[in-house]
């Protein structure tokens, strides 16, 4: 930027150069004002003529020129000039650049003629060393000052413009208030102001007659609905109904046009011109005439479509399962709550709680990707069973699904739905060339809405599903109070089981084993009991299966073994004659396959100071059916150490007698069912024959035979005659405390 660019255009008049008072035309600042006026007047929304406008600009030019030469230099005047230009309506978008362009090009040249700058010391410009070289330096200084004046002017301009906009906005909102609260002002006295609100508003504004005919809408409203064409003449707001209109919207509208209410606000869906959906936050206000009679309706609409979509997406994500796209537990429970809260006489409902059988094995052996695909396939098939609007299927956990049916009795049939779901899963699922069988257990709860709570429904469904599983799976069961109570009792026992061992709630009773030839006590079987804090003494049949299910049988079994071994040691210490009293301890299949069985047993015997031959471990026949050599190895090791192994409940399984040869057992315990027929004379001849056969076979295989359940003398005598070695039963003694065995053994000895 140099002064040359400005020089030739701002015709430096000779008069000025000579220093004489210039005529008006030749006054450089008047010329400046003229140039300024020509550049800016077309861009100003002013009502002034060009001459008037130039007259307005001249003092401003003087102020700028004076500021340029001020000492010390001060830009305040330029700031005020900026504001003054806004006041003169120079507010079109191009006005400011034009204003600054003229200043940049002409101010220095039009100001500096014959008027030397005073350069205060300390300014960053080099201090002139001699008179003649002043002019170029002064020019440079002038250019710098001019730039700063432009900045100041722009700042003042923008500031003023902003203030004015704010004032305008306030005026608009005041007008809006007036329009809404004092209808007659809006429509008559404040017509102009109202027009400003109407056109400038960002929100959609529309006015319709009381009959609903659309009279006028602003641009924002038209844009929202996809163009002005939407509001073509003759359109009526009553046409803008949408099937999803909030209930009661029509009533609100009717009240408004009847003058019974002044306004209402709703979220309302509409169709745009192109058929797409638009959601608005709509406020409709009644405008009355000066006498107070309803005249028009004013609608203010805010487009909340995006907002709503986002809200809907978030809601969808919160209520659906990502993997299968099915509703999740949250949504299911919402629906269930609605159904259950319905009027009691209204509806029946059925809930099916489905859990896949053996899904964990699929996941573990084939991987989670296959597991996920299986779940998707299952979800699709189940979804096909649940199609009616009154039905709902949800995935509520890894491999758990809940289905709901509602309606009149015939339709709300949980069992029917369960049957359909099982049928839908009957065909294997094909994944990566594999055919995977899908099995599921379903608990069905049917009921009458209003009569049962959500928690109870879910608990009952859960328990019933569990029953279906316990019954072998791939089936459904229907909830009933009795079975629920049984399962709940079982559950409550299971809950108390883990802590029972620590709390010392178990104890052992011993039942004598008697040698049939001479009636002497040879030992006893250890039988565990649970002194339950609530239910009293529980027999092993009531909790051993639970302990097996929960894995607690391993520590419990070890505890029984320890107690029994210590007890046997005590008996032996107390016995005077010989050290032959033995103890029998039952082993569960879980213990059999437990890796530390052998080492634990050896340690227990050592700790108790008991020789292995004083211990007999009882294993049921069923637990050994099909066991291969690997499975039998621990037992064989124990047998090799000298521990006796007895085959318990013999005769209740289906074992092949020749199979006995392969087992490391030294005793058979003949089940009570075989000896029952010999309780009274004459004995059942078939039973007699069977027992005879078994005893002879056992002896051939070098196995001793113990008979269980001997309740009468007749029976005992008969069994002795058949060659049985040992007997156990109420005839001799019921299971009891360990001290009693000692007494019995002593009685034998005497
Ligand atoms: P089991 O091994 O067959 O035990 C014999 C069962 O028959 C005992 O029932 C005993 O009380 C009962 N009994 C004995 N004599 C007679 C009789 O003359 N008539 C009748 N009607 N019954 C008689 P209990 O004590 O209820 O034991 C049931 C089962 O629990 C036992 O059957 C055994 O398999 C299991 N069990 C007991 N204690 C343990 C243990 O510590 N660990 C394991 N794993 N199982 C145990
Ligand atoms: Ca036993
Ligand atoms: Ca038995």
From TrEMBL:
Location of the PAS domain: 190-260
Pfam families: EAL, GGDEF, PAS_4
Residues covered by region (Disordered): 1-26
CDD domains per record: EAL, GGDEF, PAS
Listed name of the protein: GGDEF domain-containing protein
Gene source species: Streptomyces violaceusniger
InterPro entries given in the database record: Biofilm_reg_signaling, EAL_dom, EAL_sf, GGDEF_dom, Nucleotide_cyclase, PAS, PAS-assoc_C, PAS-like_dom_sf
Residue ranges constituting the PAC domain according to the UniProt record: 264-316
Residues covered by the GGDEF domain: 347-481
Domain annotation EAL: ranges: 490-749
């Amino acid at each position: 930027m140099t002064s040359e660019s400005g020089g030739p255009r701002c015709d430096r008049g000779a008069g000025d150069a000579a220093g004489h008072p210039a005529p008006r035309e030749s006054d450089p600042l008047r010329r400046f004002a003229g140039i300024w006026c020509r550049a800016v007047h077309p861009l100003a929304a002013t009502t002034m003529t060009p001459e008037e406008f130039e007259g307005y600009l001249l003092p401003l030019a003087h102020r700028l020129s004076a500021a340029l030469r001020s000492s010390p230099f001060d830009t305040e005047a330029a700031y005020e000039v900026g504001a003054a230009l806004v006041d003169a309506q120079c507010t079109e978008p191009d006005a400011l650049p034009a204003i600054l362009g003229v200043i940049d090009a002409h101010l220095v040249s039009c100001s500096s003629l014959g008027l030397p700058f005073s350069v205060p010391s300390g300014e960053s410009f080099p201090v002139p060393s001699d008179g003649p070289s002043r002019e170029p330096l002064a020019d440079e200084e002038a250019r710098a000052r001019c730039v700063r004046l432009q900045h100041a002017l722009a700042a003042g301009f923008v500031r003023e413009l902003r203030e004015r906009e704010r004032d305008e906005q306030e005026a608009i909102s005041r007008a809006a208030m007036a329009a809404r609260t004092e209808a007659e002002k809006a429509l008559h006295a404040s017509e102009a102001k109202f027009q400003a609100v109407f056109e400038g508003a960002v929100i959609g504004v529309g006015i319709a007659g009381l009959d609903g005919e659309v009279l006028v809408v602003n641009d924002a409203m038209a844009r929202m609905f996809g163009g002005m064409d939407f509001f073509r003449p003759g359109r009526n707001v009553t046409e803008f109904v949408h099937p999803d209109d909030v209930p009661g919207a029509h009533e609100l509208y009717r009240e408004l046009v009847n003058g019974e209410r002044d306004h209402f606000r709703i979220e309302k869906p509409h169709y745009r011109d192109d058929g797409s959906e638009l959601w608005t936050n709509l406020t409709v206000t009644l405008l009355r005439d000066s006498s107070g009679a309803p005249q028009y309706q004013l609608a203010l609409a805010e487009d909340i479509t995006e907002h709503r979509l986002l809200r809907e997406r978030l809601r969808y994500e919160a209520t659906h399962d990502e993997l299968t796209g099915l509703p999740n537990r949250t949504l299911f429970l919402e629906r269930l709550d609605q159904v259950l809260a319905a009027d009691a006489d209204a509806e029946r409902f059925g809930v099916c709680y489905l859990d896949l059988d053996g899904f964990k094995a699929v996941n573990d052996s084939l991987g989670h990707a296959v597991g996920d695909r299986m779940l998707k396939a299952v979800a699709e098939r189940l979804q096909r069973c649940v199609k009616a609007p009154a039905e709902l299927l949800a995935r509520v956990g890894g491999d758990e699904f809940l289905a709901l049916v509602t309606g009149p009795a015939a339709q709300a049939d949980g069992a029917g739905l369960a049957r359909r779901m099982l049928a839908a899963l009957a065909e294997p699922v094909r994944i990566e060339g594999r055919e995977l069988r899908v099995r599921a257990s379903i608990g069905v709860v049917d009921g009458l809405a209003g009569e049962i709570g959500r928690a109870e429904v879910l608990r009952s469904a859960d328990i019933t599903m569990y029953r279906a599983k316990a019954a072998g799976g791939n089936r459904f069961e229907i909830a009933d109070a009795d079975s629920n109570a049984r399962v709940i009792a079982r559950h409550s026992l299971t809950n108390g089981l883990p802590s029972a061992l620590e709390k010392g709630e178990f104890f052992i009773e011993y039942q004598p084993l008697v040698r049939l030839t001479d009636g002497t006590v040879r030992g006893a079987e250890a039988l565990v009991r649970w002194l339950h804090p609530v239910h009293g003494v529980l027999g092993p049949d009531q909790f051993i299966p639970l302990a097996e299910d929960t894995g607690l049988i391993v520590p419990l079994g070890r505890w029984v073994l320890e107690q029994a071994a210590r007890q046997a040691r005590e008996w032996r210490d107390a016995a005077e004659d010989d050290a032959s009293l033995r103890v029998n301890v039952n082993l569960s299949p879980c213990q059999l396959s437990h890796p530390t069985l052998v080492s634990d047993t050896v340690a227990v015997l050592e700790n108790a100071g008991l020789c292995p031959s004083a211990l007999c471990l009882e294993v049921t026949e069923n637990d050994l059916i099909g066991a291969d050599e690997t499975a039998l190895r621990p037992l064989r090791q124990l047998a090799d150490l000298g521990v006796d192994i007895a085959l318990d409940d013999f005769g209740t399984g289906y074992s092949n007698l020749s199979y006995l040869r392969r087992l490391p057992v030294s005793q058979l315990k003949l089940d009570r069912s075989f000896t029952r027929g010999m309780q009274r004379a004459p004995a059942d001849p078939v039973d007699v024959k069977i027992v005879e056969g078994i005893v002879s076979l056992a002896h051939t295989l070098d196995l001793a035979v113990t008979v269980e359940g001997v309740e009468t003398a007749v029976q005992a005598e008969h069994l002795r005659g058949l060659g049985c070695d040992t007997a156990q039963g109420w005839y001799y003694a019921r299971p009891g405390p360990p001290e009693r065995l000692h007494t019995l053994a002593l009685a034998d000895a005497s």
